[in-house]
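User: Let's play a game. I give you a shape written as tokens, and you guess the letters that built it. Ready? Here's round one.
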């Protein structure tokens, strides 16, 4: 049956409208059969009656079908005449489908045209005509398909409505969907062109300007800077953007977003090109790139780029960072950090911290969860500075979850130590409007000892040496964040040199700080600089006893056996990474020591120990510097330093996390091919 402009499936409609009597006749036949056991003649009569009724029903049904067909044909003609162009010749493509199966029941000529003029669409599914299309959005109560639909080179927005033709409108098999297709090809192309032509702001910064030009004459200096300028200009040329050098070590680059994908695909090759330039002193040039996009204006894009470059520099430089409205993206970051701190900055930070302490009624000091010796040592050192300024310090710590219990027990001998260490609950009661909260050894809000306390305090100071993560503590009155330092204890020691005399520091406080430095430098063998030894000399002069520090790191026989069990379970991966996946809980200190010990095996460039802890899997990673374990751990939601990092993966198993770790290592080595083999 056809109305000229549309197509309707008669057989489908008749099936819907046909009365069902099969069960009734089946019941009568069964009843007649059962009567045979009582009276044969009665059963024969009943059977004859059933046959007669069946023939009468069939004649009635045939007449009813003819009547329905005539009615539908007349109704279609009436509707066509009444509606005119409003439905049959509706200007938009339309199709009616059964929502449970996707079968097409009706469509107008416009829909035939956009599908290629295909005839006989009935008894086929909409997904066969439009590959990949489904109408689940109608069953979810939506009226618009969430995605644009691509069909024969055109783009469409699809809208729809639902009608019920069955007794139970809640059942999908009784629902029909009407779909309206709106051609948005030109608008889509315009929108895409708008997105691709959006301006992107990039800041390119020469990380180690002072180091590479040091002791160079004017001719050598000009040659070095000219080579760097040429590399930057060659990298930016394909984008046909605007490049301007506005400082001795900074470039501003404006380009369209269509070129950003090529820069990402090229893994920001400018980083490698710059690293190929080596100063006469043997120092390779490193650049950092900060990119801002998706801002409401050029000013906002520039602000994002400035945040991105700050993030890149705080993570050690030699990398590219993209900042949009929601997040950061990181690329590169292979080089070791060069020590760039100056005593001028330390003195300024010390004076600012002293002023903040003096303006506070009390001071709360907080490290990270599962506090280690560096965290506790830094907190104890800050407490000494607070005491010197005449204010009461409180160190917030969970004594039930810490890797520094032995140090905490020793700190109980300090004068006034009775109420020095408090719980997070007590700290919340102590916090007031004039309270200063000093966070040490972490910059991530979710890793502090008490996130609620962090939210409750309005005056915050931050002292940390870890590379900045994408989610970091932002609202700080003072931020002494130096990823080039070996430890938080080293940074605190530098501040103390300007805040108190060497004799004002208690011997046990000096022990705690020196122990923190020793922990993060593996007894001064890794990640050390000139300033590290200067801080150690200051603490040694304040009475720190190396013998006491050695005792702090001693482990009992059970811990030693557990450590060797972890090492015994290790295996090599990619010929340079030692992995130890332990299925039973392990003390965090034991795991860290095992990871350190694995680095002593010949051929090992990096090591990772992973083990279950409560409802999460903990990873402890170490490296000799060739492999950046921070980048690897960030792929699993963690972070840290290039040589020391870790992660915690909630609601997962050791084997599942191990699979993710192997993928992260593969991905890192593919992105950094120079690290993928032995040299």
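Assistant: Ready! My guess for every position:
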């Amino acid at each position: 049956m056809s109305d000229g402009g549309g197509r309707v499936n008669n057989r489908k409609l008749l099936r819907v409208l046909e009365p069902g009597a099969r069960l009734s006749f089946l019941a009568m036949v069964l009843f007649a059969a059962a009567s045979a056991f009582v009276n044969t003649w009665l059963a024969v009569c009943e059977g004859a009656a059933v046959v007669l009724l069946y023939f009468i029903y069939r004649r009635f049904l045939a007449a009813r079908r003819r009547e329905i067909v005539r009615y539908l044909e007349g109704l279609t003609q009436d509707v066509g005449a009444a509606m005119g162009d409003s439905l049959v010749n509706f200007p938009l493509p339309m199709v009616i489908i059964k929502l449970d199966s996707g079968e097409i029941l009706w469509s107008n000529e416009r829909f035939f045209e956009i599908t290629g003029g295909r005839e006989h669409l009935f008894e086929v599914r909409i997904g066969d005509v439009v590959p990949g299309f489904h109408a689940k959005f109608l069953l979810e109560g939506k009226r618009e398909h969430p995605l644009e639909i691509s069909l024969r080179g055109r783009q469409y927005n699809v809208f729809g409505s639902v009608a019920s033709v069955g007794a139970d409108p809640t059942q999908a098999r009784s629902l029909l969907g009407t779909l309206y297709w709106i051609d948005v090809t030109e608008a889509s192309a315009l929108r895409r062109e708008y997105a691709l032509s959006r301006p992107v702001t990039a800041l390119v910064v020469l990380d180690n300007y002072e180091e590479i030009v040091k002791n160079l004459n004017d001719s050598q200096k000009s040659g070095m800077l000219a080579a760097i300028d040429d590399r930057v200009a060659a990298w930016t040329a394909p984008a046909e953007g605007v490049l301007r050098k506005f400082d001795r070590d900074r470039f501003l680059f404006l380009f369209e977003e269509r070129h950003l994908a090529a820069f990402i695909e090229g893994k920001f090759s400018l980083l490698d090109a710059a690293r190929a330039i080596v100063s006469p002193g043997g120092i390779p040039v490193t650049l950092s790139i900060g990119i801002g996009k998706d801002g409401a204006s050029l000013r906002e894009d520039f602000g994002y780029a400035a945040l991105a470059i700050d993030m890149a520099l705080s993570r050690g430089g030699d990398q590219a960072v993209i900042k949009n409205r929601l997040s950061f993206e990181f690329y590169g970051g292979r080089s070791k950090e060069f020590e760039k701190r100056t005593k001028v900055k330390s003195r300024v930070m010390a004076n600012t911290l002293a002023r903040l302490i003096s303006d506070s009624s009390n001071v709360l000091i907080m490290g990270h969860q599962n506090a280690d010796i560096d965290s506790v040592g830094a907190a104890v050192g800050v407490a000494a500075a607070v005491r010197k300024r005449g204010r009461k310090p409180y160190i917030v710590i969970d004594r039930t979850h810490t890797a520094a219990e032995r140090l905490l027990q020793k700190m109980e001998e300090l004068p006034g130590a009775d109420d020095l260490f408090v719980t997070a609950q007590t700290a919340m009661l102590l916090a007031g409007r004039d309270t200063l909260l000093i966070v040490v050894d972490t910059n991530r809000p979710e890793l502090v000892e008490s996130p609620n306390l962090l939210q409750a305090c309005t005056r915050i100071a931050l002292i940390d040496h870890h590379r900045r993560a994408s989610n970091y503590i932002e609202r700080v009155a003072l931020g002494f964040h130096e990823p080039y330092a070996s430890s938080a204890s080293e940074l605190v020691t530098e501040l103390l040199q300007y805040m108190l005399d060497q004799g004002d520091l208690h011997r046990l406080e000096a022990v705690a700080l020196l122990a923190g430095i020793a922990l993060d430098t593996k007894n001064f063998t890794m990640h050390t600089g000139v300033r590290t030894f200067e801080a150690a000399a200051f603490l040694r002069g304040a009475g720190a006893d190396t013998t006491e520090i050695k005792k702090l790191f001693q482990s009992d026989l059970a811990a030693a056996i557990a450590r060797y069990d972890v090492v015994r379970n290790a295996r090599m991966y990619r010929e340079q990474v030692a992995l130890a996946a332990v299925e039973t809980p392990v003390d965090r200190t034991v795991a860290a020591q095992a990871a350190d010990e694995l680095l002593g095996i010949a051929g090992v460039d990096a090591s990772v120990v992973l083990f279950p802890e409560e409802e999460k899997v903990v990873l402890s990673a170490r490296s000799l510097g060739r492999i950046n374990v921070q980048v690897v751990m960030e792929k699993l939601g963690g972070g840290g330093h290039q040589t020391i990092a870790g992660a915690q993966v909630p609601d997962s198993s050791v084997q599942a996390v191990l699979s993710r770790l192997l993928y992260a290592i593969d991905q890192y080595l593919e992105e950094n091919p120079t690290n993928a083999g032995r040299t």
